[in-house]
Amino acid sequence: MKASVVIQWLAGIRYIKFGLVGAGGTVVNMIVLYLAQEHFFATIATIADTRQRLYASLALAIAIATVHNFTWNRLWTWADRVSADGEYPQNGTSIIARQLGRYAMASWLGMALQYGLTLYLSHSLHYLLANGIAIVTASISNFLANDRWTFSYRANK
Question: Max Cα separation, the chain?
Fold first, then answer.
């Protein structure tokens, strides 16, 4: 078996791990959104403040899901990577903070890509099909951004 075939197979497993972590993050997002909306921020109850409660709940859900996904991707999906800068970390906290920032940026860029691509494709396709294509495209771009940028260092160089 050629080395390139093995590398491609392993990359496929990494992408599957990335997808499983993302699915778990979706569950975390939905649970936190529900709990925040119905319980944590329930004191924001007037009709005028209903949107404010949703804004706060959604921001909390996205933040917690992003940290969840980052943590599991760092510990599982890219566990073989040491640091994003190609150096062994002397200050582990600063490396993690830098990686979290990069991860969040890659995630936000992926969300923007999904949003824009869905709107663009929905001019010629059914909006659900357009969104499905955009989700797959954004997930691939998120994976590549995190693989090549956030967790770029390979411990076995």
Answer: 65
Mean pLDDT of 84-92: 53
Q: How far apart, in whole angstroms, are the C-alpha atoms of residue 54 and residue 20?
A: 27
**Nearest by Cα to 13 from 79, 70, 64:** 79
Average pLDDT over residues 132-143: 92
Rounded CA gap, 76 and 130, in Å? Answer: 31
CB 133 within 8 A of CB 121: yes
Q: Whole-prediction pTM value?
A: 0.77
* Contact indicator for 81, 153 with CB cutoff of 8 Å: yes
Cβ partners under 8 Å of residue 144, min gap 6: none
Residue 25: closest CA among 125, 139, 121, 153: 139
pLDDT at 152: 84
Q: What is the pLDDT of residue 108?
A: 92
* Rounded distance between C-alpha atoms, residue 75 and residue 156, angstroms: 17
